[in-house]
Specification:
By secondary structure, this protein is mainly β. The chain folds into two domains: about 5-10 and about 110-225, Thrombin, subunit H (Beta Barrel), CATH 2.40.10.10; about 15-110 and about 230-240, Trypsin-like serine proteases (Thrombin, subunit H, Beta Barrel). It has helices at about 155-160, 230-240, and strands at about 1-5, 5, 15-25, 25-35, 40-45, 55-60, 70-80, 95-100, 125-130, 145-155, 170-175, 180, 190-195, 200-210, 220-225. The longest helix is centred in the C-terminal third of the chain and has 10 residues, at about 230-240. It is globular and about 45 Å long. One of its GO terms (cellular component) is extracellular space. GO terms for molecular function: serine-type endopeptidase activity. It comes from Oryctolagus cuniculus. This is Peptidase S1 domain-containing protein.
């Protein structure tokens, strides 16, 4: 969730995806994700704890209402980063979902622009996390997509002993560390950062938060740094 966030303006984050797991005819919300190409969604490696069928929902705003722009697409294959080993804090927490058929690009459903390769966000950059994760630690999930302003905490600060210490790696992005935070269910969802021409780029995908609570002071939400994985993303898409 986004703790202490606010309702997003409908369809203002048109690359926001929802990853769902199907079991016994029911669908369960697992993670957020980012549409990066009409055929591909980027999410976290830890979002696939079960073997079975996963679906992607695009163009969603209020999960209780069928509003029209939604696209519900089965997955063809899920490719988790080969170096991810079931522990998000060790890094490489990234996966790509190939959709069974292409998403239709509309006003409400559009692929994101990704961070430039190896780009490092300056400390204090004001980015937004978005998702339908719980709105408090152990709390309930919201119906409407939430957004939360999270200032970037650079590696130098985030890796200090009283912050995340050695748990955070240079292939991560930290953001927040105060009242606004990512929480359970936001995993895999985007960290959206502004560019100079006032468009948006996705620089992170939500990976983990503190076990002491989502909005623990000096424990910012930790994201997989997308700019570190551009070659892997491009290669994976080209080969599949």
């Amino acid at each position: 969730r986004v703790v202490n966030g606010e309702d997003a303006v409908p369809y203002s984050w048109p690359w926001q995806a929802m990853v769902l797991y199907e079991e016994d005819g029911n669908l369960y919300f697992i993670c957020g994700g980012t549409l990066i190409d009409p055929d591909w969604v980027m999410t976290a490696g830890h979002c696939f704890p079960y073997t079975g069928t996963y679906w992607v929902l695009l163009g969603e705003h209020d999960i209780t209402v069928s509003e029209g722009p939604e696209q519900f697409i089965p997955t063809e294959k899920i490719i988790v980063h080969p170096d991810y080993d079931d522990d998000a804090s060790k890094g490489n927490d990234i996966a790509l979902i190939k959709l069974l058929h292409s998403a239709e690009v509309t006003e409400e459903v559009q692929p994101a622009c990704l961070a430039p390769r190896d780009y490092i966000l300056p400390h204090g950059t004001e980015c937004y996390i978005t998702g339908w994760g719980t709105t408090s630690t152990g709390g309930s999930t919201p119906n409407i997509l939430q957004q939360g302003l999270l200032p970037v905490v650079d590696y130098e600060h985030c890796s200090k002993p009283d912050w995340w210490g050695s748990t955070v790696k240079e292939i991560h992005v930290c953001a927040g560390g105060d009242e606004v935070a990512g929480c359970n269910g936001d995993s895999g969802g985007p960290l959206n950062c502004p560019t100079e021409d006032s468009s948006w780029q996705v620089h992170g995908l939500a990976s983990f938060v503190s076990s002491r609570g989502c909005d623990t002071l000096q424990k910012p939400t930790v994201f997989t740094r997308v700019s570190a994985f551009i070659p892997w993303i491009e290669e994976t898409i080209a080969n599949n």
